[in-house]
Every structure is written in C-alpha cells, then in structure tokens.
Amino acid sequence: MRFLCDEMLIRLGRWLRAAGYDTLIAGPAAADALLLAKAAEDARILLTRDRALVQRAKGRVQSLLLPDRIADQAQLLRQQLAVDWLDLPFTRCLMDNTPLEQSDMELVPEAARGLPGPFRKCPRCGRVYWPGSHVRRMMAQLESWSDRAAAHPSGQGAR
C-alpha cells in the first residue's frame, strides 16, 4: 500500500513511514486537484480529515476520512486497510520517504556504535538512523497500534 497524506496529517504520515509504508505528505496549501491527481498518478490511497476532499475523491481515487486523534487514525487504518504497524519498521526515511540503506559505521555517532543495530542511512538526505532510545519509544508506539496489541486485553502485544 502507498499513501498520500494531506497537510493535516503530517504526523500520521511520519508514523506510516516509521512503519515502513511509502507515504507522501502534501505540502502546505496543496490544492485538492493536485492531491487527487498525485494520488491517481501514483496509485496512492488518499488519507485526509477533509470531508469535502473525500467527496471529490469518490470515483477517482481510493480515499479514507480519518478522525482527529492519532490513536484513532492508527486504529482505523489497521481496521479498514489492514495496516500492519510492525511489518517493516524503520526502513524508510522519516523526512523524505526514501528507502533506507545499510550505513557505514563511520557515519554512526561513536556513542551509538556499540548498539546492536541495524544502522541505516538515507541515500537522498544523508540522515543516519540507529536503534537508540528514540527508536525504542517509537517501536513501543507502533506495537500499541498493532493487531498484536489489539489481541491482548492488557494492550500489550505478544512478544
């Protein structure tokens, strides 16, 4: 699945990228016609909180109207589109959506080199990623949105 998030869903778009989904995020004040054209051209699912945009999309591109809260958005995506929040985590650049490559160790900060990895870099922007505390916190959030967490009443996924 490939997604296009309108400007109201920047945060969700970054979370989808963190989960490994090819996700474009519209720039500020992107015209509805441009969003619809891009979604059609790239066969992307348009995600929005704009009811009028969903109406315009009908019959042209697949779209989904999302609620306000990020947790509710994540749940709806899991239920309606079978988004697997744990399928390929941390395989895309959070900033520009490019698939990540293995990083050379000299690019990784010295303090992080002792971590178990993986160490990745974005070939487009050069950003380097490693499994520090930020990634652990993000992974915990992805796990909370997954089917595995939903299957357990305590909210804790099977490990």
Fold and architecture overview:
There is one protein chain. The protein is of the alpha/beta class and 159 residues long. The protein folds into 2 domains: 2-81; 101-150, no CATH class. The protein is built from 6 helices and 7 strands. The protein has helices at residues 10-18, 32-42, 51-57, 70-81, 133-145, 147-150, and strands at 2-5, 22-25, 45-48, 63-65, 101-102, 120-121, 128-129. Strands 2-1-3-4 form a 4-stranded parallel beta sheet, sandwiched between helices. Strand 3, helix 3 and strand 4 (63-65) form a beta-alpha-beta unit. It is globular, with a radius of gyration of 17 Å.
Strand content: 5-15%
Strands of the biggest beta sheet: in what spatial order? Answer: 2-1-3-4
Number of DSSP-assigned strands: 7
Measured between the Cα atoms of the first and last residue, the distance is 26 Å
Mean pLDDT: 91
Radius of gyration from CA coordinates: 17 Å
**Overall helicity:** 25-40%
Determine the structural class based on helices, strands and strand pairing. alpha/beta
- The DSSP helix count reads 6
> Spans of 5+ residues with little confidence (pLDDT < 50)?
152-159
Helices and strands, in order, run as EHEHEHEHEEEHH
User: What best-fitting shape do the alpha-carbon axes yield?
Assistant: globular
